[in-house]
Specification:
Pfam family, one: SH3_4
Strand order of the largest sheet: 6-5-4-1-7
Protein name: SH3b domain-containing protein
Radius of gyration: 19 Å
CATH class of the largest domain: Mainly Beta
CATH superfamily of the largest domain: SH3 Domains
Shape: elongated
Number of helices: 1
InterPro entries: DUF1058, SH3-like_bac-type
Keywords: Signal
Number of domains: 2
Largest sheet: 5 strands, antiparallel
CATH architecture of the largest domain: Roll
Distance between the termini: 49 Å
Organism: Qipengyuania aquimaris
Structural class: mainly beta
CATH topology of the largest domain: SH3 type barrels
Number of strands: 14
Helix content: under 10%
Length: 156
């Protein structure tokens, strides 16, 4: 095999490297749980003890550190541990926090029409956030909620 085709093959293989490389970026950053079950370990290897098992696909997490296919994460309760990177997704999600129900509004403004309400602990898809309001969808229902009511919105 001549060197030119070999080099082209090598360059094309590197261009389409593993999906985990998409999460190799500056920390901290937001991610969410891709799997229906995810083991959080006390260290960055399958040899370490399992500290917690997540069974909530879509739960937002904050990635604090990267180490060879593993991510040190923090969950909404402040628990920290290591998870395998392929079971996370960079898709943005958020969880409702605070006391009492949160209002999902038709428009991003105080005093707007309430479309529906969500309780603390509800997880949804996060859209754009602007001037203290975020687009938030749960299933096929969407609207705007105050950014302060969401963990997973804003700067990690």
């Amino acid at each position: 095999m001549s060197r030119v085709p070999f080099l082209l093959l090598l360059v094309s293989m590197l261009a389409f490297a593993s999906p985990a490389s998409a999460q190799d970026r500056e920390v901290p950053y937001w991610a969410s749980i891709r799997a229906t079950e995810l083991n959080m370990r006390v260290g960055p290897s399958a040899d370490y003890k399992i500290a917690w098992v997540y069974r909530r696909q879509g739960l937002p997490v904050k990635v604090l550190r990267i180490m060879e296919g593993w991510r040190l994460i923090e969950d909404p309760d402040g628990s920290r541990g290591w998870v395998v990177s392929r079971l996370l997704t960079p898709d943005r999600a958020a969880i409702v926090i605070g006391e009492g129900e949160g209002a999902i509004l038709a428009d991003p403004e105080t005093g707007g029409a309430v479309k529906w309400r969500v309780e603390p602990g509800v997880v949804g898809t996060l859209g754009d956030c602007d001037e203290g309001w975020c687009e938030f969808a749960v299933g096929n229902r969407a609207g705007y909620i105050e950014q302060a009511r969401l963990w997973g919105a804003g700067e990690p």
